Fold each of these.
Amino acid sequence: MESLTFSPSFSSPLRSLHRYLPISFPLVPAKTHHHFLKPKTLALTLTKSNLRIRFHSKSQSSMADTAITSGKGKLLVFDGDEDLTVSLAKYITDLSEKFVRERGAFTVVLSGGSLVKALRKLVESPYFDSIEWAKWHVFWADERVVPKDHADSNYKLAYDGFLSKVPILPGHIYAINESLSAEGAADDYETCIKQLVKTKVVDFSPTNGFPKFDLILLGMGPDGHIASLFPGHPLIKENKRWITFIKDSPKPPPERITFTFPVINSAANIAIVATGAGKADALHKALGTDQSSISLPIQMVSAEDGETAWFTDKEATSKL
């Protein structure tokens, strides 16, 4: 059986948490980095429905409790917003280094809402200095069909809050053509991504024929929607198109484009950021023990051949 050494140092990949530990073994703390908090002890509980691994700090300033839930990925629960943003920045930085080394590029998909605010640590050291920004390629999982300078534009939100502060090549930022209709913008965006698959900028899943982005970053609405895939809407059943459109969004503005579930679930890595008490009900349906019915889009998120990480706080997970 394997033992697990958890190092919260900057160089240690967060994915080391995916290895399992015999219940009789202690956690062996490695040397820490000053950006991270003290090592934690490990408690493991095996239940009928899932395997949970939780870290507990000996102090009151624990960075996160961690659970690995069978079939749903890795759940990270943070005491505060600052700890979450630090951990998310490290997670993204580690993945960037991995894919740039392996593929020579890192394809990142953003969504709207509060997600962009959670990326703010990427513009600070040590993360900013460790990323090869010229190798990044940035996309949107969904976009509102409005001008790029419109207050509702996900592009504007990301540009003002993040993209304008990092040296990503302008040609590597793939926004929709907002001058087209919603249908035309979706077709155009799909054509763009298909060309990038042909040139091997975007990876490809031979098992299902869909693009395989290195990382898709998603927020979640209180109603359990992700991207522009809403509860009860016919679009959640779309399984042929890569990108599709919606003209009757239950949230304004009504016209949007969105990745479909086959593309989202084909990603090598999916990170979902969900914080606050308003997300507790949806998160309970997504990660709770009762999985007998699927009524929310968030419940349909599942990296088929990849990994899913949930970045949450205690309020959002209060009902788990």
Note: Residues 1-62 have pLDDT under 50 and may be disordered.
Amino acid sequence: MKKILVVDDDDDVLETIQLILEIGGYDVEPLNDAELIFDSIDEFKPDLILLDVVLGKIDGRVVCSQLKSHDDTKYIPILMMSGLYDLKEVQDMECAPDDFMSKPFKMDILLEKIEKLLNKVHRYNIN
């Protein structure tokens, strides 16, 4: 079972996404405190990270940049999401998420994007 770490400071959003992903057959670890992301990654070892841009006092784009510049985490695909920013605003920073999704989103599109990212990673691991 593929593992997905979901990082969002809104507990209602976390709960909704967790339910959607668990119904979709994923093992989900919700995290509402982005400061604990590296600890959570070490313990949970996610196959993918679903990361909000606005995380209270922390900017998700900064977290994304940190993850992509760290040797232990740079290969974990990141799907960023936001209700306030668009893809261009996310890409303008040094963060390079593997995909982006606007909030609110449709459940089927979320699952489709996740499956696409996980399949892409799986193909790289085979070769």
Note: The chain has a mean pLDDT of 87.
Amino acid sequence: MAKPVNDIEAAAAEIVELRTMSSAPTTEARTLERALGAQIRLLRRRQDLSVSDLATAASISLGMLSKIENGQISPSLTTVQSLAHALSVPISSLFESVEERQDCSFVPAGRGVSIERRGTKAGHNYQLLGHLSRGDVVVEPYLITLNEEATPHTSFSHAGVELIHMIKGEIKYRHGSETYHLRPGDTMMFDSGALHGPEAFMGLPLQYLSIIVYPRNHG
């Protein structure tokens, strides 16, 4: 027996929703076109040119240039070349804002930047797994290994939010006035402004992933 149309539509909607399982806003359509248009508008204004001036110099219609600057159409390579020539800039400069958005970090296994702790934090090895230089927030992913020299330290405090995912070993981790027993596969996420850190170890060495997120313009 065929399912009612409403049920099928609901199921389809649920599948679409579950594709990413994220509530983050979706990227706007025509990202490339919008970035290209914004860059053309920026360069035009820097040269104190009107839309009409640039359209005439590039031998395109006023309406087409307006649509290009608003990211409503995908201009041909010939049109892009004409605009670059009219603005007296290389074609690559028209895509600078697009390139800025494509920040990516790749760290091969075992090649993260290691930070060896001293003093009360001796035995706490931090391996930075990636870094992005742009964006509104800073994301610091660390692979943390506590070796035989490690001692408990519950006085960490910094801006942002932190996520911890246990990989190997067991640990009692304090956050504020609460203590959590973490085993492999366990995850906790918390406001990292509160005092926090490993309070007790159930054997060493142990290892966990720590991801710290905070606003780039903080402080």
Note: The two ends are 63 Å apart (CA to CA).
Amino acid sequence: MLPPVGEALNPLPGVYASMRGFVVPAVSMDVATAGLLVIALALALAAAGWAAARRGWLSPLTAPAILTVGIAGLWLADAKFSVDWPTFTGSNFKGGKDLTPELSTILIGLTIYTTGFVAEIVRGGVLSVGRGQWDAGHSLGLPRGKILRLIIIPQMLRVIVPPLNSQYINVVKNSTLAIAVGYPDFLAVMNTIISKSSHSIEGVFIILGVYLALNLSLSSAANWYNRRIAIVER
């Protein structure tokens, strides 16, 4: 339903959508720059975690501070990176990063589908916190934002983390639907290898191993966080 490439939609600067898929700007950097960026962000996150542990809550200025530290670290290190903007030349776009129609379809489809479930989980978590908690926050003179951040969300997380874990695992499983739109995802590639090599047992074990590792990793991370925020009775 998208227009031809010569009449591509331009919803955002540098972003074009046509029947050939999406074209977005591409950021390129060398290995040293990427390493410096990771180190800077890791140090900023560690500092934010230390500050949150001392105060008992996370400041709303944490995200801008992390971004500022990362940019300052790259500037001080004279990091080299560039942005490749797509341009329409001849009969197609050159530069940027191409997102094929198959990848765009599965990405948009899974995002919209999963967003509905996640929204309901979060809505149920908010409603699970009694109205009295809001009234108690208002009685202390706290603004609505602080009530939500300091009172509602900590209690809400204990309710929504387990179902969110299941939903994220379902996203990994539902990614196999990419084969329905012709996207060569991991499952489609392994099926092609199995059909050409006849090593079906080995191929199936590889598929099981990859999906099992992904799901166990997500489950372990969510269970660790769930234990961290759980109420410990004395």
Note: The mean pLDDT is 82.
